[in-house]
């Protein structure tokens, strides 16, 4: 692969580098509940600081709808970033003039407080990018989670200044390239989350490459219902019946082992303290809850089978929880998959988003896995083979 790296920017001593990170972290008031993306930004900031550059960090947080909103302020992130870096981080609530910037690390307020950041009008984005560009001498893009967006700080800014990719983007691309170009076999993909429709592209792209496809999470019920099983009040996308039947047929034709759960944890309702039982996947309504039951996790038999498939693979990509992991009673399936992924003799990748939040919430450390992606939707689009504007503008080409 080819990609402009920080080294391509030359001597950075005494220069100001604008750094686009993805610091879109979950907040509970002023408390960051998962600082994984903040920690992921630290190596590139340190590399730039070691090169003698001042660094102006930029990011979005949440969906403030193009106007200032205190609940989406990056102020708490500035505090945590300073702790991780071990040096002060100046937080700029208002858009500064360049003369107001210090010689160290500065964090600008949420870029999406300005409607031009995510405008559909290229001219508006270019105008905002020009204002940002006036603050620095070079631009480094390191927010992999936004490279699939044509936004001012991702695309136009990379054109307005000498630009390169940071360490995080380079690492993400290396891992994702290994998942798509000659992955070590056996290759297993584990998909969960709520909707089949969210995973159509990645299934289409990876089915010809994998040996096993394990289906969990809310999306499993569409597969079961398409086979004619009753699923109570579990999540369902009946518009996807033809699609999932096609996947089952294509997997059989290609010799891919498509593994569906054999047992499910059925609950009386969607709540942390709901009554629950383990039911056979082909008899989900044969419980005391009847047709009112709702599936909230894969069962223990399925969890053990999934774990064995994962442990005996050399390459594993996992995206999407197996159940409602936020409720302890329905977290066992997700925890079993996460534990197995730490035991892979090869490359085990947690595919960002809810999966990354889940492993941290369940007590796993980042370094227990081969890689935890910060990409979320961008990672899936890359695996689907979609052109990502934030990478193209950095000179990305596969070898």
Describe the structure.
The protein is α/β, with parallel strands linked by helices. Helices cover 33% and strands 17% of the residues. The chain has 13 helices and 17 strands. It has helices at residues 36-50, 75-85, 122-133, 152-160, 167-180, 200-206, 220-226, 241-254, 300-311, 332-341, 353-361, 377-384, 389-392, and strands at residues 16-20, 27-28, 31-32, 54-58, 89-92, 105-108, 138-141, 163-165, 187-191, 212-215, 257-259, 263-267, 276-280, 294-298, 315-319, 347-350, 371-372. The strands form 4 sheets. It has a 6-stranded parallel β-sheet with strand order 5-6-4-1-7-8, with helices on both faces. The protein has a 6-stranded parallel β-sheet with strand order 11-10-9-15-16-17, sandwiched between helices. The longest helix has 15 residues, at 36-50. The mean pLDDT is 94.
Helix content: 25-40%
| Gyration radius, rounded | 22 Å
| Protein structure class | alpha/beta
The end-to-end distance, rounded to whole angstroms, is: 4 Å
Stretches with pLDDT under 50, minimum 5 residues:
none
Strand order of the largest sheet: 5-6-4-1-7-8
On the 0-100 scale, what is the average pLDDT?
Answer: 94
Helix segment count?
13
Bin the strand percentage: 15-25%
The dominant shape is: elongated
Order of helices and strands: EEEHEHEEHEHEHEHEHHEEEEHEHEHEHH
Q: Quick one: how many beta strands? A: 17
Largest sheet: 6 strands, parallel
Short description:
This protein has 399 residues and is an alpha/beta fold.
